[in-house]
Design goal:
Distance between the termini: 88 Å
Largest sheet: 5 strands, antiparallel
Radius of gyration: 34 Å
CATH topology of the largest domain: Phosphatase 2c, domain 1
Length: 570
């Protein structure tokens, strides 16, 4: 069997030094080409070991400081070395496995080389009794497999990352001083790649932490839908995908999903700005198409105000917004260049509603169009970003068929659906991040809804008030009756005096008591503080004091003034 190393037994003596030099240069060149193909610290360390074995060593051990694996600098890499790579010609090397803490005595070559910054050579381990005696059990096992070693520090840009140890077995020639110098050069080149991977890991960790901090941390308490969501970052970088679940007035729920073009800190920060703005527009009760219009204007303004964008900016961000009303089981949706949602009906039928695509956010001047879809109770609405279905190695139509197959199980919970989609449809190595939101719809119990219509006649106010009190008594909400009676009186009177057309009153018993008064006027009321000499102007102030929250939303027929009364303790 030929000896391991750069010079093999049986080669002619003439030109052996030139041959060894050439092979050293070839190995250095190969290290430069094979190490650092990814920006993953562990994979880079593995590439170093795979390049060295069996060209220079029979076994290679790489121990990196624990902070380095997280992308940080290690104040003292000798304090917490973690076994990162074990690679060699034997399937059962005599070393501690990957993941364990690497423990060395104070005089071991690994710690000495980290202290000195120079490679340490032990040509004959049988003569190294001083430091091997510190671990006799491991020493016996080690000496049965290897005869010599080189320990070399992994240092780049003045930062110590860890240590690499090269071993040769008994049937290989022992290491010499030329091997030590070569190992030092190899480790230096590998350390530069490891440090690049470490710095990238640190940046990616920071961006991912920012991304996750800007995404919802839970699902709001509401009864309109049962929701599950997932966010999966890209394998190589973090993008700007986002989602949100927003409780709206009238027991409705808003579902948002969006994607900011690009990757890195800028995309994550921009995502946070858009998500905050989108949530604000949604909570103002704008319909989906108007929310997208406001977002489009915002993106245009951000691009104009950012001098660093150089005209590129964030044009190309996409968004899909859906509003579901459990009282009517209607869902209004609009999208801005975003993939359409998937709709799973209670019988397991999967479809993709035909929504007008709309332009991506930031183009400006082009309209968005909303579509109304009837959703039977128990339907699932699945929103996702393009990272789920778009991949260079897959056809989009094939992926959509896979998505339909994964969703065609109406018996699954939203959590199970999310898991199935990511397990069967998402790319194995996603190049773009992925956001998925699954919402199973519920219908509002008609027994918890009371509606009255009346003409704009002040004489009818007492009649509606009496009907509402009887309804609250039937619902067992007598303790909320006083506040509800005052709020209804003020809202109905306000609609009669300042509104127009027939008036509609609706009570909803949800997690709170919701009082709604609608008319055909588009004039919104304004809260103000009445002077002591004013005869009016105190109605909305009274409503604001009694209600947990209140507001106005516009409809194609006019407007709705609503107020929510807390039922805690009722």
């Amino acid at each position: 069997q030929p000896a391991r190393g750069l010079l093999m037994v049986g080669e002619p003596h003439v030109g052996t030094y030139a041959l060894a030099a050439r092979r050293r240069l070839e190995l250095l060149s190969e290290v430069g080409a094979r190490i650092g193909t990814t920006l993953d610290v562990r994979r880079t360390a593995q590439e170093l070991a795979e390049t060295i074995v069996p060209r220079l060593a029979d076994h290679v051990i790489v121990d990196l400081a624990e902070p380095v694996l997280r992308g940080e600098e290690a104040p003292d890499p000798r304090a917490d070395l973690r076994r990162t790579v074990v690679h060699g010609i034997s399937d059962e090397p005599p070393f501690k496995p990957v993941g364990k803490q690497a423990e060395y005595g104070p005089t071991a070559p690994q710690l000495c080389c980290l202290a000195s910054g120079e490679a340490m050579l032990e040509p004959d381990l049988t003569t190294a009794a001083d430091w091997l005696a510190q671990d006799p059990e491991h020493t016996d096992r080690l000496l049965r497999h290897v005869r010599s070693l080189i320990a070399v520090p992994l240092v780049a840009r003045g930062v110590a990352l860890g240590v690499a140890t090269f071993y040769r077995a008994h049937d290989s020639a022992p290491f010499d001083d030329d091997d030590r110098r070569l190992a030092q050069e190899l480790a230096h080149r590998a350390a530069l790649s490891l440090d690049n991977a470490r710095r990238y890991t640190r940046e990616r960790t920071m961006v991912l932490a920012l991304q996750r901090s800007l995404l919802p941390h839970g699902v709001p308490d509401q009864d309109a839908v049962e929701v599950a969501h997932r966010y999966l970052p890209a394998e190589s970088d973090v993008g700007g995908d986002w989602y949100d679940v927003i409780p709206l007035s009238g027991a409705r729920i808003g579902l948002l999903v969006g994607d900011v073009v690009g990757h890195g800190m800028f995309s994550a920060a921009t995502m946070g700005r858009l998500r905050t703005a989108a949530r604000s527009f949604a909570e103002l009760d704008f319909p989906p198409d108007e929310v997208l219009t406001h977002l489009d204007n915002l993106v245009n303004r951000l691009d104009r105000e950012d001098p660093a964008s150089h005209g590129a900016g964030i044009i190309g961000a996409t968004c899909l917004y859906a509003v579901y009303d459990p009282t009517t089981q209607q869902c209004s949706m609009a999208r801005a260049g975003h993939p359409p949602p998937a709709l799973v009906r209670p019988d397991g039928t999967v479809s993709f509603p035909d929504l007008p695509a709309g332009p991506p956010l930031g183009l400006g001047g082009l309209p968005f169009e909303a579509v109304e879809v009837q959703l039977p109770e128990g339907s699932e609405l699945v929103l996702y970003t393009d990272g789920l279905i778009e991949d260079r190695t897959r056809d989009v139509d094939v992926v959509l068929d896979q998505l339909s197959t994964a969703l065609a199980h109406a018996e699954r919970t939203p959590e199970e659906t999310c898991r199935a989609v990511l397990d069967t449809v998402a790319p194995a190595h996603p190049a773009d991040d992925i956001a998925v939101v699954v919402a199973r719809t519920h219908a509002f119990d008609p027994g918890r809804i009371a509606t009255w219509e009346l003409p704009a006649d002040p004489a009818r106010v007492s009649e509606v008030r009496a009907c509402a009190m009887r309804t609250l008594a039937e619902w067992g909400l007598d303790e909320a009756a006083f506040a509800a009676e005052l709020m209804l009186s003020e809202l109905v009177t306000n609609a009669i005096i300042h509104g127009s057309g027939p008036i509609r009153v609706r009570l909803l018993r949800d997690r709170c008591l919701i009082c709604e008064v609608s008319d055909t006027s588009n004039t919104a009321p304004h809260l103000r503080r009445a002077a002591s000499t004013d005869e009016g102007g105190r109605g909305l102030f009274l409503v604001a004091q009694l209600a947990q929250s209140w507001g106005t939303r516009y409809t194609p027929e006019g407007k709705v003034i609503w107020a929510a009364c807390d039922l805690d303790g009722v």
